[in-house]
From TrEMBL:
<dbReference type="GO" id="GO:0016853">
    <property type="term" value="F:isomerase activity"/>
</dbReference>
<dbReference type="InterPro" id="IPR050303">
    <property type="entry name" value="GatZ_KbaZ_carbometab"/>
</dbReference>
<protein>
    <submittedName>
        <fullName>Tagatose-6-phosphate ketose isomerase</fullName>
    </submittedName>
</protein>
<feature type="domain" description="SIS">
    <location>
        <begin position="41"/>
        <end position="200"/>
    </location>
</feature>
<feature type="domain" description="SIS">
    <location>
        <begin position="204"/>
        <end position="351"/>
    </location>
</feature>
<keyword id="KW-0677">Repeat</keyword>
<keyword id="KW-0413">Isomerase</keyword>
<dbReference type="Pfam" id="PF01380">
    <property type="entry name" value="SIS"/>
</dbReference>
<dbReference type="InterPro" id="IPR046348">
    <property type="entry name" value="SIS_dom_sf"/>
</dbReference>
<dbReference type="InterPro" id="IPR001347">
    <property type="entry name" value="SIS_dom"/>
</dbReference>
<dbReference type="InterPro" id="IPR035466">
    <property type="entry name" value="GlmS/AgaS_SIS"/>
</dbReference>
Length: 374
């Protein structure tokens, strides 16, 4: 089928609502700022806390996108470690006995790993805990609301995505943590940029889906590698794995992952707003054009097609820090995944009607961590 529009689904509505939700997210963070600042001040006053951003799937990729910006702002190392990794090996997070400032991201907060990761760390070392969630009634929010050394930031109901795949939940929580740590983000400029990108997103995404790719390769440098991972996941989720999403850094792609390229591959390169990193993104875009042809390479960002070897350009205005820019650039990946889903005659709100993959993960058994083990 040829995609002529991106339809009316929860998925589409939640993608398109994002610019308006960002202002509401900023308002929520502003309302609880005194509690956040008290928590962060106490945590950062400690000699050298380990700062860990955690979540699973899309929520884990939030940490990967924002960690570099937070590290630069704080002048401290910030680590993104998925809840799935913490649950499997919690001692790796507390190897040196330092206290932990844990930032948990969760759409619902009902996945077993979201709850278990925080519980394990609290058991093993002193922890201060900032929870950013889209569901105040979720188990994670309920567990830590009112707890000592913890603050729960519950985002507006509209960003608690009803669809299968997280879209506005992703950008809402990412924006919330940037604002919570005191980074300057021009939310109005962010919303204007998002609205501009959405103005032509349906046509651009439909054009990519019209090429009937079997594989979508997403590449980016620095925090945009985390963005690439989220983009690839959207493709897998919304197409039921029929359009395989692959993610890598712009430099790392040549070290083996480039083997994935074939004549049914479309490659998307996120061009970093950082001039130094951007040079590497442009290099790989040119190389991909030679391998795939210009019609199967898309660069997302501010660029001239000739500069990138003739690749297709999906314009996204620069917004300074790459971590903030990623919140707008992800719209290209979200709408592309939606367009590919529709092209395959799937239902994007429920691409797995048989329940093979679920909105809240199923089948996880949390095993007892041995007493006395540290």
């Amino acid at each position: 089928m040829t995609v002529t529009g991106l339809g009316d689904s929860w998925t589409a509505r939640e993608i398109w609502q994002q610019p308006t939700t960002w202002t509401a997210v900023a308002d929520v963070v502003g309302h609880v700022r005194p509690q956040i600042e008290e928590l962060l001040s106490a945590a950062l006053f400690e000699a050298s806390p380990r700062i860990v951003l955690t979540g699973a799937g899309t929520s884990a990729f939030i940490g990967e996108v924002v960690a570099p910006a937070l590290a630069r702002h704080l002048g401290r190392q910030v680590e993104a470690i998925a809840t799935t990794e913490i649950v499997a090996d919690p001692r790796a997070v507390v190897v040196d006995g330092r206290p932990v400032l844990l930032v948990s991201f969760a759409r619902s907060g009902n996945s077993p790993e979201s709850l278990a990761a925080a519980e394990l760390l609290h058991r093993l070392t002193p922890v201060r805990h900032l929870v950013i969630t889209c569901d105040p009634q979720g188990r994670l929010a309920q567990r830590w609301s009112g707890a000592e050394n913890a603050v729960v930031v519950a985002l507006p109901d509209e960003v608690n995505d009803r669809s299968f795949a997280m879209t506005s939940s992703f950008t809402g929580m990412a924006l919330a943590v940037l604002l919570a740590f005191g980074l300057h983000v021009d939310v109005e400029a962010l919303a204007r940029a998002g609205t501009a990108v959405l103005g032509e997103a349906a046509d651009r995404a439909a054009a990519i889906a019209g090429g009937k790719p079997d594989r979508l390769v997403y590449l980016g440098s620095g925090p945009l590698r985390g963005l690439a991972r989220e983009a690839a996941l959207k493709s897998l989720e919304l197409t039921r794995g029929q359009v395989v999403g692959i993610a890598e850094s712009s430099l790392g792609f040549r070290h083996g992952p480039k083997s994935v390229l074939d004549d049914r591959t479309t490659a998307v390169v996120f061009l970093s707003p950082d001039a130094y990193a951007r040079a590497y993104d442009v290099d790989i875009a040119r190389e991909l054009v030679l391998a795939l042809g210009p019609e199967r390479v898309v660069v997302v960002g501010e660029a001239d097609s000739a500069e990138c070897g003739g690749a297709q350009v999906w314009p996204v205005p620069a917004l300074g820090d790459p971590s903030a820019w990623a919140l707008v650039a992800v719209i290209a990946a979200q709408t592309t995944a939606l367009a590919c889903s529709l092209a395959l005659d799937l239902t994007p709100d429920n691409p797995f009607p048989g329940g093979e993959v679920n909105r809240v993960v199923q089948g996880v058994v949390i095993h007892e961590f041995p007493e006395g083990v540290s």
